[in-house]
Amino acid sequence: MCRFKQTFVPLLSTCLLFMFFGVSAVFPAGVMAEETASITFYDGNDDDPNPGPSVCILPIESGIYDFKDIAECVNDEARFFRVVNAPSATYIRLDDHPSCDEDHDDDPENGHNQNFIFIFKVVKNHATMEQPISFSQLSGTAEGQIIQGAPGLRMEFNYIDKDNNQINGKLSCVKITRSAVPE
Fold first, then answer.
1. More confident residue, 112 or 120
2. Does residue 123 or residue 8 have the better pLDDT?
3. Which of the residues 57, 98, 114, 183 could staple to 172 if both were Cys, CB 3.0 to 4.6 A apart?
C-alpha cells in the first residue's frame, strides 16, 4: 500500500497540474511556438554598420520575388538582411536584376549590366541570424565559407561586377528554392 501512494500521488498531482494549467505552465512561453521562416531586408546608411528600417519581409518559400512587383518591398533600397528560422537545404539568391536572371554576364543587347549575385545555402535547420548583416559583408565571403554573423548559411556563389562595385541599395530580386520535404 505504501508503494502505491508513493507512485500514485505524484502521478495524480502531475496530471492535475496539466489539466488545470495546461502545457504552457510546464514549458516556457514560446518553446512550442515556431517562428515563421522569413528573410527581412533593411535600409541603412553605407557608412553606418547598423541597419535602418525594414524595407521588405519575405516568407522563405520557393519563388522569385521581384521587388518592382511587390508593393510591400522597396526596390533598390536594401543594404542589410536577416534570416529567421530557415529550413536546411534552402537556397537563397540575392540579385540586383529584377528577374533574378541566371546569366550574370553583361548583356548589351538587352541593356543588362549585373552588379552582383549572392547565392547562399542554409546548412543548419532553423538557421536564425541574431542580427542583420550588410551586403558589403557578403561581398567578402568566399564561396564555400560560412557567412560571418550568419551561422548556418554557406556562400555558394559570389559575383560582383568589379567595374561597378555597386552592392548597397541595389537589391531588386530574391529567389528562394526550398528543398522538397522528405517522405
1. 120
2. 123
3. 98
Residues 174 and 123: their CA atoms lie apart, in Å, by: 19
Checking DSSP bridges between strand 38-44 and strand 91-95, what pairing results, if any? unpaired
Distance set, CA 173 to CA 131, 151, 183 (Å): 22, 23, 31
Question: Domains plus CATH for the chain?
Answer: 1-27 (no CATH), 38-177 (2.60.20.10)
60-106 pLDDT per residue, tens: 999 999 988 998 888 888 889 999 999 999 999 999 888 887 654 45
Q: Is 136 helix (H, G, I), strand (E, B) or coil?
A: helix
d(CA 41, CA 81): 4
